[in-house]
Design goal:
The complex is a heterodimer. Chain A is mainly alpha-helical. Helix content of chain A is 75%, strand content 3%. In chain B, a hairpin with a 3-residue loop joins strand 1 and strand 2. Chain B is globular and about 70 Å long. Classes of the chains: A mainly alpha, B mainly alpha.
Amino acid sequence: MLMINLILVLLIGGAISWWSERFGSNTPRLIALVIVIADLLYLLLASAGLTSEPFAIGAGSGAASASTWLLSYQLDWIPRFGISLHLAMDGLSLILVALTLVLGAIAIISSWNESNQRQGFFQANILWTLAGVIGVFLAMDLFLFFLFWEVMLVPMYLLIAIWGHEGKAYASMKFFIFTQLSGLLMLVAILVLAKLHHSATGVFSFNYFDLLNLNIDSSTAYWLMLGFFIAFVVKLPSFPFHTWLPDAHTQAPTAGSVILAGILLKTGAYGLIRFTVPLFPNAALEFAPIAMILGVIGIIYGAVLAFSQSDFKRLVAYSSVSHMGFVLLGVFAWNVLALQGAVIQMVAHGFSTAALFMIAGALQQRLHTRDMNKMGGLWHHMPRMGAFALFFALASLGLPGLGNFVAEFLVLVGLFAVSPWFTAVAALGLITAAIYSLIMMQKAFYGKPPSELEVADFNNLDMTAMGVMIIALIGLGLYPQPVFDLVQPVIDSLLAHTLGAGSQ
Amino acid sequence: MIELAMFETNVVAMLAPLILSIATLVMMLQIAFWRHAITSWLICCSTLTACIAALYWSSAVAPQQVSSILVSDHYSLFFSLLILFASLITALLTKDYLEQRSGENEEFYLLLMLSALGALVLVSATHLASFLLGLELLGVALYALIAYPERGRLPLEAAIKYLVLSGAASAILLFGFALIYAALGSLSFVGIGLQLSQDLAADRQLLVLIGTAMVFTGIGFKLSLVPFHMWTPDVYQGAPAPVTGFLSTVSKGAIFAALMRLFIDAQLYRFPSLLLALSIVAAASMVIGNLLALKQNSLKRLLAYSSIAHIGYLVITIVVYGSLQKAQLAVEAASFYLTAYMLTSLAAFAVLTVLSTQTNRGYEQTDSDSIDSVRGLFWSKPLLALVLTIALLSLAGIPLTIGFVGKFYILTVAIEGALWLLIAALVIGSGIGIYYYLRVVFAMTEQIKQTSSAPSAQQGMSLVAKLVICLLIFMMLALGVLPQPLIEQIGNLY
């Protein structure tokens, strides 16, 4: 029930904060913030007592293997097609759900200084997006997974379409069409899987654990794998499916950018780890070189484009494309080190990019521009913001001691065992990251300060949000062991599953 | 005694059409002696409600063959329910709409009931004669309904267009019937099927094939499938909003349901060339319908093109039935999708009806159906915006709405039949579809400057309209979240 409650609290909370709009624009913000923090506390308290048993995917069938997870909940939903309301949580989902809630709270804080129009509906959409994302991380029935996958788009679309900046019509439409169309491909792949299960056993099933053990002939598996792969790399995003991202991130309101970059992109990475590779291990192995080429291109190409932007938000957006390339590499290298790296990258990138988008939003709100050529010397006027920007720029370029470094280092070490050449090219990404991050600092915060400029620095609320993210990044950089421990059993069993399938 | 009992059973089985026939007579008398729109409206609504209740008793004796041309089985009863429900919703919303317009409004309800009667006959037809009877009753009443606003230029144009093209389609259809009869000497669906299951001489087979092709051409016109779709946008735009909704749901739904029965009982799936032609028509409808909807600024035209695409999705189920022969899943999918499509279209046109009721018009009394008329609707009329958003998302097939479950069904049967090219057309078509559905949603979310004149010209919604809209929202969401009850109902229709 814990997992259902997590989602329900957000859904109902969204409705409440929409309703509370009538009491002024700060009430819905406060209510939304309290709800998200309460949800987070609920998750942490409830999962503190759970011990992570050895993760065994596909051992036995159905409910038997689900019992080795931290939590599992199953309820019949559409028995005609063997669809059930099946949620389950393991270490990986736990980390991502916690990340979602933390960044959700930060997104709400970041909306505090923005426009006051329709704050209730705005907060409601944020909470509903969070609910959808948490559903994606927990769903173990492919129909249910797809449902959450699509449903989270609608509130996100509304966030961009209603509260976005000047080009919101184009950006929101592009975002929706890219994800929806790729989602349809995944739906077709899911239905084919269910049909294969039907012809093999006589019953329809969308249960993840049933479908894991299907025997699929290799050419079919390759096509199905592509269906899932495309849906996930559009969301990740990876070259050449990334073009929606700079538009959507740039046009979204700050809270929307924080959620998009911090959380929504991770659903793509999660999907690759949870579904694409385990469901089709052999096809994924066969496809791995192409995926890794895409990852490497994404790293370099994203970095080059980030370097050439003059728009602060677009720069950060393209840096996401570059960072997510590491996740793609880590997943398709498919060994313990690389996968650990990919997971840490998901968390660390979530924090560092969310913080940079918050700074970008704060700048736009104060200066009414995102053009870095019109900035410069801002450190003088806003020392707090400048210092934070420097910290997160350094985190983003992979400074040792911070989370991003651990992540990228692990991915590269893991990848080296698989393909030294890709590793060599991908390592260039660390250099290019330094270039665009420092250029960003240089253009926006250093240089000659403009003489007459009256702007407010970060207030205490912003400082708190920033502080949380700094602590998280330093924690991940200096002592990532707790995350490793949580994820290790998941990775072990995933690897065991794919090895077992590969040897057949 | 036995004959009397037989007679009674037949009456019970055909209770709904009988009540409807008698009520049309009553209303005719009422209009002749005492013109009063509210009374006519009350008679219409209570008759339709009584018919819905009557289906309950009819289902107790189903399946029952009534004479050799009509049948009352679960299939016909299910679609009768949909038709009556859609007609009732149309009738409920029409009152306010007509009151805003001058003119004699009593006959509108009479025509509506006649049209619904035609649709009921159509879904119960097991014989080409009753098929034609239902089709024409439905169609002829619709011509008058489309042209009902006496002052408008557009409705008249639409009605004439529909009359001429629909008449031509009926003629082609009849010619097809004649050819089939000439070759097989049978007019009942099952009779045709029996003949086709035996080995036929090549020349007779050819005659039947040509006849069938003509029948499908005629029906293709009525369903507005590509390449017979030209009339659709003009008629949709010209007809008054409630009538457009009726045309889009009752007329198309009933014709499709009858077509499915004809296809199955007459075993027309035995012609591979027909299946190929249907596949091409389906793919073309999906892609072209969606493409042409892209640039429309009139919501009615947009919905017209989108309905072309949706009927295209539906045709997939017929093709699947044909390629798999005995596929109960295909009928189930068609029934579900039709339900979803009818509910969703009803909701969309309900919004247009209410909007047209609320705003002032010029002398010609055209409907407010341009995309500008919904700009900022989220902030000015949240309830209408909500129902239109849900309807559009449902048409686009976004989860939690009934449209998604419908699309899920269509994809499932298409995969079952391994029709990869049709699946590709469906995916491409849906991708295009999102754009124009979202364009409308985006327009609704825009913030517009309040002009001083706008609010004063508008008035609130009536209680009936509010209730109808809430009911439609509830049904679209409830059946999208918990489709199992409906699935159980349609599980063994055929």
